[in-house]
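General statements about sequence and structure are easier to judge against a single worked case. In the encoding step, the backbone of a single protein was reduced to a row of integers, each denoting a local shape. The record that follows shows the chain in one-letter code together with its fold in token form.
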Amino acid sequence: MSMDKPILSPDFTIEDIHKLREYNYYQTKNMTPQERIDYYNTRGLEVHKKIQERKLQKV
């Protein structure tokens, strides 16, 4: 079973966190441990890159 990407509220509430956790569970539940590691590392690098780009925009 696949799950659609959650729609988050502008205020980012606790409900949004629950939606994200559930979505993430469905994305990773059938992965091997190595696939999960790769999945999280890839996502983490994407977020890190976005954070760095925003920092550069502020300067």
